[in-house]
Amino acid sequence: MTSLNQVQLVGTLGAEPTVASSSTGKQITRISIATNRRVKTTEGEWTEVTDWHKVTLFGNEAEYMAKFGKKGAVVALGGRLQANNWIDKEGVKRYDLDIVRESVHYLGKV
After folding, report:
1. Secondary structure of the chain in the HEC alphabet?
2. Using one digit for the tens of pLDDT, what is the confidence trace for 43-71?
3. Given pLDDT bands bounded at 50, 70 and 90, which one contains residue 40?
4. Cα separations (Å) of 16 from 19, 21, 31, 65?
5. Which of 5, 17, 21, 56 might form a disulfide with 80, Cβ 3.0–4.6 angstroms?
6. Residues facing 54 on adjacent strands
């Protein structure tokens, strides 16, 4: 059996990148990318909807994105989906779906 876990997005950075460190001291950069799609309303009119995607970067690209990534920049991204779950401070089990970056290319400004 063969499986494939691949995501490709072209979108706009919705905020400045956030930077953290891993337990081994490596830099981790997180970004939020907005993509838009058109949907038809119940009244039959078309409207644009924005979807937000959380992306995690590691290594050299994490450092590069932290330094040069700016809100409003247009990027093309390739990566994989990663499901996460944890228990929050109130004891509630939480779920999250993140994109782990494998490649990022800057395409310009909006």
Report:
1. CCCCCCEEEEEEECCCCEEEECCCCCEEEEEEEEEEEEEECCCCCEEEEEEEEEEEEEHHHHHHHHHHCCCCEEEEEEEEEEEEEEECCCCCEEEEEEEEEEEEEEEEEC
2. 999 999 999 999 988 888 888 888 888 99
3. very high
4. 10, 17, 7, 9
5. 5
6. 32
Integer Cα distance of 56 and 97 in angstroms: 11
Quote the CA–CA distance of 110 and 89 in Å, as a whole number.
Answer: 39
| pLDDT (0 to 100) of residue 17 | 93
In the block, which residue shows the tokens 């009119």?
45
Residue 14 CB coordination number (10 Å): 14
pTM value is 0.77
